[in-house]
Amino acid sequence: MSSVKTAVFPVAGLGTRFLPATKSVAKEMLSIVDKPLIQYGSEEAEEAGISKLVFIVGRTKNSIIDHFDKAYELETELAMRGKEDMLKIVQDVVPEGVDCVFIRQPEALGLGHAVMLAQAAVGNEPFAVILPDDLIYNAEKGCIRQMIEVYEKHHASVIGTQTVSMEETHMYGMVAGPQIEERLAQVEEIVEKPSPEQAPSDQAIVGRYILTPAIFDKLKQTERGAGGEIQLTDALAELRNEEPIYAYSFEGKRYDCGSKIGYLQATVEFALQHNELAEDFKEYLKQLEL
Question: Residue 49 is part of which domain span?
Answer without folding.
Answer: 6-287
